[in-house]
Amino acid sequence: MNQVIDTILSHRSIRKFTEQPISDQQLEAILNAARAASSSSFIQCVSVIRVTDTEKRRLLAEYAGGQAYVETCAEFLVWCSDFSRHVQIKPDAKVGFAEQTLIGAVDTALMAQNAMLAAESMGLGGVYIGGLRNNPDKVCELLKLPEHVYAVFGMCLGHPDQDPEIKPRLPKSIMVHDNDYKRIDEETLAEYDEQVREYYQTRTGGNKSTSWTEQISATLDKEARPFMKDFLRRKGYLKF
């Protein structure tokens, strides 16, 4: 164990922040850490939009489903898959393939996670805002994202003003397989379901009592954001 691993294992989503700003030096370090992430084939197909305009923050919070902390956090970063600059460099570039769509999302996530860990190592906290994909066209219009660029998610960062418990993850025995894939052990899953139920009861003061199985069953009962496929094609992704 070391300090890096301790920071990783201490991750919580922070949704309430003090009014203290993040210093220029801290933000520079966070973004440099992000830029150091691995890049598939050195394509470097990620852009970050730092949003400081208060009206744009308000609208992004609205587009994300009324997540007020988008407005109140010290820094709000929008992480984008970006093949636009590649087309600027090579106008006849072959972009829009399914593999490139995957690479864009993967590389964006790698950079953002580096940034989150860097922030947490400084005592800061944050939360990812996938809700930007609730209104992807509006987000693109607001941030003037051209073809071949779209917002994968947002990220709130700031000084924490809450101390939530760490949300329990699936047991390693369910997520990590030796040599080949194994089916879920029902007894282990039942124990985890009870652990998650107790977590929600504690966090909500008894107002929520949901197991992980119940939660994912409700989540996967229908397609989430069915409009995303057409949106991505309009933005120059999933064309082939």
From TrEMBL:
<keyword id="KW-0521">NADP</keyword>
<protein>
    <submittedName>
        <fullName>Nitroreductase A</fullName>
    </submittedName>
</protein>
<dbReference type="InterPro" id="IPR000415">
    <property type="entry name" value="Nitroreductase-like"/>
</dbReference>
<dbReference type="Pfam" id="PF00881">
    <property type="entry name" value="Nitroreductase"/>
</dbReference>
<keyword id="KW-0288">FMN</keyword>
<feature type="domain" description="Nitroreductase">
    <location>
        <begin position="8"/>
        <end position="158"/>
    </location>
</feature>
<keyword id="KW-0285">Flavoprotein</keyword>
<comment type="similarity">
    <text>Belongs to the flavin oxidoreductase frp family.</text>
</comment>
<keyword id="KW-0560">Oxidoreductase</keyword>
<dbReference type="InterPro" id="IPR029479">
    <property type="entry name" value="Nitroreductase"/>
</dbReference>
<dbReference type="GO" id="GO:0016491">
    <property type="term" value="F:oxidoreductase activity"/>
</dbReference>
<dbReference type="InterPro" id="IPR016446">
    <property type="entry name" value="Flavin_OxRdtase_Frp"/>
</dbReference>
